[in-house]
Amino acid sequence: MSYGQSISESIALTTTHTPIPREVVEHALSLRQSHALEISGDEASKRLGIENLSPQDQYLFRTRVFGGIAVKTALASFHADIPSFYSLDEDAQKQELAILTNEYVAQATDNSPSQLLQTYNGTEIFPHIPNNLVRSWVYSARQAETSVAQRLKTLAAYINVTPGSFPPAPYHVRPMGENDVTLVQAFGRDSITDKELAGVSSVQEKVSDDTVVMEYLDGISFKPGPSNIDLADIVAGQLTSENPVEQILQWEVTYALYQKYPELYKKYRNYLHSVWPHGEFYPTYEVKQDSIAIMDQIGLINPSELAHGDMMARAVGILEKLGVQPDPIAADISYDPESTQPHVRTANAFLGREVLARVEHILRGRVRF
After folding, report:
1. C-alpha 192: how far from its chain's center?
2. Within a 10 A sphere around the Cβ of 142, how many other Cβ atoms?
3. 61 plus 200 within the same structural domain
């Protein structure tokens, strides 16, 4: 029985999972960009013809597909009745990763690498280990390490609605390993009112192609507004960094990136996953629900959160309730004086709306600290 099969059988029989230690989680998350994975996946890459992809998509294939297999192997093995992946020496790790990536290739030979990027859901090698379970392991590990003092600081940050006060630097919750995705929350827009969002939703549902919807927004001269342009600037910086990570963006920020950085948008198109409104209003809670659904579809498990600082505490609280502990990104995001949403035009206008929203979220049980 192979190492991977042993993991699958053990997990199928395991009903309870103790929190995974920090060092094991950090090692697992580091595998997406590891040299060991690059070496182990070399043969599999050649068999699939990954070299025919653009350099950006070659990197994405290694980190999303082969990296996803490696991360799941390392975390699941901790709960299996076999030596954990973390405990294996480097040569043994490379050998097991080579076997697993070649197992994936054996199942995927009828599809091109570009098709596999579109259809990969992270469960091919371990069909009985769903992505949301792996995400929950990371969340449990982070929760187990979060002290009462840190939780109180998170609660205090939620109660404190003073503009410019969040996130504090350094943030009181220590990151655990490398982030594999950034969740991006839009802030205002200078055209299209909330009541008109249903029209955008209708177009997106009909075409199911973000770039086509971007072109539609071009046609109606959509204006994303300065706040979303600020957010897009940060996304652009992340995409062009040495180790770019995937982005799950509220649609206004996707458009701002598409408009300001058209060539970057094309090069990194497969890194971008937009979330779209379902009707005339798209509250933060739904944005986060949709974002986590995309994480679970792809197998991303350890996000950072990018949002206007004055709404970050609420976004973090919502994500905690939904089973994710994000690492906030401190960023200087402007208010939007011309926004169709009056509450994002100034800090004072936002303050009143934010107080009501935070109280409502507590009363409805939509946040956790």
Report:
1. 26
2. 24
3. no
